[in-house]
Specification:
mainly alpha, globular, Growth Hormone, Chain: A, about 80% helix, 3 domains, about 0% strand
């Protein structure tokens, strides 16, 4: 028993794990500064609700980061003596700091466009940091240690979110949140920028992964052309996404869901068509585009054969039960009769620590019993915990029941998240680490996020209790997929 405890602490408290915790903090810090915290700032600046919701488009940087991940995988920065991953990681972190400083000097009540530019810069820099950290984690340790590193990364990420969310609002409240003063928000964002030193110092004092890399396949002029092409492709994607509106004037959830899928597909077709055109006019070399985008995908398909389709399906569906359920959680709590203080205390504050605990258990379980078994158990408890919300929906308001349900849900979500990160890490080839992992993580969120957008409509039609039962049921195919893949997969995870 003592040996088991000693091994547990030895694994989780080694230097690599602690450094990954700090990198997780650096990764989790910026995200809420362009979402909930920024929304409060905009509300206090009396920006209209419609305009505030448009700021959510900055989230596209997180959802489609795989589009520029080949740049990070293949292109070398001028100061390569620092190391390929470390140079990109340090660059993205410095970009986050500069973006936070930039937005802190804006005033959305007077210079809203500059605030919008600042939020996009933060999101883009933060998503780039995520790409590099994921690649760095995978390349820094063997597969048997990925569960530990993933757990500590998630723990640091959640603490970073807590500091950027609750911490920044508490600071703003202390400085005088009730009466709008742009100086308050300047102090808040400059304070958050200073906390990025945690990630920067961790990067400086961490070793470069011992991975051999090929020399860059592009000349300097080719790199500039490739960068221009990438920027144009992103611009076309955003333009199509922004201006393509639903032609149907009804609230049928199925039609709206199908249109959302078609909309995203058309965005990709538009960007792809532009890239194809630029290849045809020889702005970029065909070989460079193939190396950057086609080879990472073909490498995955060649390694896993027919199982690749099942694996991609599993990636796209694994988090569907908890993501679809989570979107309406706060609305449900309020409509059920719980007040904002109770929601903030039990859901946001204690919920984060429950998620961290679940992540540590999930990562350790993956090490002890294997990735696929941990993945199956994580999917099972994530779906089953949704049934507790169905129980909460039919129960009278009760704090003890609320605490029980929230704790169980967050522990299961943390467990499933850690196990899934370990699984994605095992799937990733060292030749295309950043590109493949960014593609997997983007695919993980795509279908659940699209479906989650219509969760409110589904609740209106079938009620909360039936909705939570429905979200548990849609988690069953994931369990069957894991069993199937475990039987026919040609490799061990």
């Amino acid at each position: 028993m003592n040996n088991s405890k000693n091994n547990f602490f030895k694994v989780f408290l080694n230097l690599k794990s602690i450094k990954m915790f700090f990198l997780g903090f650096s990764s989790g810090l910026p995200i809420l500064l362009v979402f909930s915290t920024l929304s409060v700032w905009l509300v206090k600046a009396e920006v209209s609700r419609n305009t505030i919701t448009m700021f959510s488009w900055a989230a596209l940087a997180y959802s489609f980061k795989f589009i520029w991940s080949p740049v990070i995988d293949n292109f070398k920065l001028p100061f390569q003596n620092f190391g390929h991953r470390k140079s990109w990681l340090l660059t993205s972190q410095i970009m986050i700091v500069l973006s936070l400083i930039f937005i802190s000097f804006t005033d959305p009540s007077k210079t809203l466009v500059l605030t919008a530019i600042g939020s996009v810069l933060i999101a883009f820099s933060s998503a780039s940091q995520d790409i590099v950290i994921d690649a760095y984690r995978i390349e820094s340790a063997p597969q048997r240690l990925q569960g530990v590193l993933s757990s500590l990364y998630i723990a640091g990420y959640r603490i970073g979110m807590l500091v950027a969310g609750a911490g920044s609002l508490l600071l703003a409240s202390y400085l005088g949140l009730e009466v709008y003063d742009v100086g308050v928000w300047k102090t808040v964002y400059l304070s958050m920028a200073s906390l990025m030193l945690v990630g920067i110092l961790t990067t400086i004092f961490s070793p470069e992964p011992n991975i051999k890399r090929k020399t860059s396949f592009l000349s300097f002029n080719d790199k500039i052309r490739f960068l221009i092409t990438f920027i144009l492709a992103i611009a076309i994607f955003i333009l199509v996404y922004s201006f393509l509106n639903n032609p149907f004037n009804n609230d049928e959830p199925l039609e709206k869901f199908l249109f959302a899928l078609v909309k995203i597909i058309l965005c990709f077709i538009s960007s792809g068509s532009l890239i194809y055109l630029l290849i045809k006019i020889n702005l970029i070399k065909k070989n460079s585009a193939i190396t950057a985008y086609v080879k990472p995908v073909s490498n995955f398909i060649n390694r896993y054969g027919k199982v690749a389709i099942l694996i991609l399906l599993l990636i796209g569906l694994y988090r569907i039960a908890d993501i679809v359920m989570g979107v309406v959680a706060n609305i449900f709590y309020l409509e059920k009769g719980y007040n904002v203080k109770e929601i903030a205390t039990y859901s946001k504050f204690f919920g984060i620590f429950a998620t961290i605990l679940g992540g540590i258990i999930g990562g350790y379980t993956a090490v002890r019993i294997g990735t696929l078994r941990a993945l199956f158990f994580g999917a099972l408890i994530a779906a089953a915990s949704n049934l507790l919300f169905a129980w909460l929906a039919v129960s009278d308001p009760n704090i003890d029941i609320l605490i029980t349900v929230i704790t169980a849900d967050n522990i299961s979500s943390g467990f499933a998240g850690a196990a899934f990160v370990v699984y994605l890490s095992a799937l990733t080839s060292m030749k295309f680490t950043a590109t493949q992992y960014a593609l997997f993580s983007s695919l993980m969120l795509f279908l659940p996020k699209v479906l989650a957008g219509y969760s409110g409509t589904i609740v209106s039609q079938i009620g909360y209790s039936n909705f939570y039962i429905f979200t548990a049921i849609i988690g069953i195919p994931v369990l069957l997929l894991i069993i199937w893949i475990a039987k026919i997969a040609p490799v061990k995870y």
